Amino acid sequence: MAHSTRFKRALSFKSILSYVLLTCVAFFVVGTIHWPLVGDASLMHYVVFLMQHGRSPYRDIVDMNMPGSYLVEWAQMHAFGSGALGLRLFDLSLMGVAAGAMVAIAWPQDWFAGVYAAALLLLIHGRDGVDQMAERDLTMTVLLLVGYAFLFHALRKQTENPRGLPVRISGWAMALSGACFGMAATLKPTVAPLEFVLLALLAWQSKKNRQPRSTPVATLIVSSLAGFAVPCAIALFFLAREHALHAFWRILTGLVPYHASIGRLPIRYFLRYSLQPGFVWLALLCLWIAAARKDWRSNESVALWIGFAFGMASLVAQGKGYPYHRYPSEAFLLLLAGLNFTAALQRPGLLRVAGMLGLCFGVLLLAPVSTAKTLHYDWQNQEFITLLQGDLNALGGAKLSGRVQCLDTTAGCINTLYQMRLVQDTGFLYDCYFFAPQPSPVQTALREQFWRDIQNKPPEVFVVTNQMCVSPASNYRKLDAWPQLQHYLDANYSLYAQRTALRPVAWWSHSRPPFGYRIYTRK
């Protein structure tokens, strides 16, 4: 009778919390549906746009992103549309898939754990800012969650019916799991070892338990590896079709390590400022409950903790502390927290209190605060793009296609070209590699390539933003780092306009001063 009463109270408590979460999610969706296309997503859209105009990735377009990023972006643009609304729908769809995977993972224990984790992941993702939509790490995280859901489904069915389950069911589930991990690896190779660690854990647990299975563990492993190989093969086919295999290898061994070396945070600063507020306490409370329950060493719990560890390793390895780099670790931590907090509700005494505190902290504090911050972002501020569009239209508009070049990283020049559907003169999307304070043979080679390109086909218009690479300062002195280019502009171009937007950019929690730009026209 006591257990039945406790269960009814827990169900009522979780139902109330569910209504709060769903209300926050509803406000979030309605309030953000009109968010604009900005940030890295606009750059990825522009790469696909250049590919549609005959440019080849890595060979003609200088970029450090992996092939899977372009394939996902291409699919998204064709399925949802190439504008801001299409990206917003894709981003929300990603979160919907993540929610389904989290609920599926948590279902045997408590459905609410998945709802709790998914809703908080969505709302924290929104709080990170307007320019964090559909980031590669978010797509990668969703693929990992779906991969885990298929993996757990296959192993659960084996446990429920060790002799009677048809081989094809568990085999297909493992293949789909491997395919999700493989696709995630084509976005960020740092997660590729996760597949092999989980399969090694499966083999070790099978040998340790010596349980009979209708499908031998070797068959499960082979099925997963076969699924993992499919997205990798598709990526290689894509590169071969674009005649970019050699160029990709050059980027992978040169530009990618150089990009990773730029703007790395000191470890003390990184650990202090790159973690989401409140997550340290959630992690500590979750760890304490998991240890007190004495069942944290179950196969699924170990696998989820491994996922969290890989997320943290990816965050530290990338070393830049961008909000979207946290998504893998946040997703697995939230799922583990939801599972442990809901399980603690069924325990007496201090454990139940700790579980209630963890759930209330997430639902009654993190969720409403994240929603409120998200709804107050000034997403309508597109002043930089509006100003630059006006100037480029005055200089010829559509006639500038193939004759304009940006010297910018993320201030908005490339986004403006995408909005106007203008092809850039060269395939260089970022100027950060030219002006980064870390000298390198890679930097020298990129400068030489860019110099050859503009000598062979000089742009009619240069747009130079005042965004400084890996620096919060904004000025045009970045050109001092490459005097040869500065002298070239002075000798061959005239300053047409210099403008700075007026309104601060409030796309995230801390607004920043607006960027400006200079336009140079060929003499």
Characterization of the model:
The protein has 523 residues and is mainly alpha-helical. It folds into two domains: 374 residues, no CATH class; 140 residues, no CATH class. The chain has 20 helices and four strands. The termini are far apart. The mean pLDDT is 89.
List the helices and strands and how they pair.
Elements: H1 2-32, H2 40-52, H3 67-80, H4 84-106, H5 111-127, H6 136-160, H7 167-187, H8 192-209, H9 217-241, H10 245-261, H11 267-273, H12 279-293, H13 299-318, H14 327-344, H15 350-375, H16 383-394, E1 404-407, H17 413-420, H18 432-435, H19 441-456, E2 461-465, H20 483-492, E3 493-500, E4 516-522
Parallel strand pairs: 1-2
Antiparallel strand pairs: 2-4, 3-4
Helix pairs in contact: 1-5, 1-15, 2-3, 2-17, 3-4, 4-5, 4-6, 5-14, 5-15, 6-7, 6-14, 7-9, 8-9, 8-13, 12-14, 12-15, 13-14, 14-15, 16-17
Query: Helices and strands, in N-to-C order?
Result: HHHHHHHHHHHHHHHHEHHHEHEE
Number of helices: 20
Rg over CA atoms: 25 Å
Shape: globular
Q: How many strands?
A: 4
Largest sheet: 4 strands, mixed
Strand content: under 5%
For the residues shown, what is the average pLDDT?
89
Number of domains: 2
- How is the largest sheet built, in terms of strand order? 1-2-4-3
Low-confidence stretches: none
Structural class: mainly alpha
Keywords summarizing the entry:
523 residues; mainly alpha; 2 domains; 4-stranded mixed beta sheet; 4 strands; globular
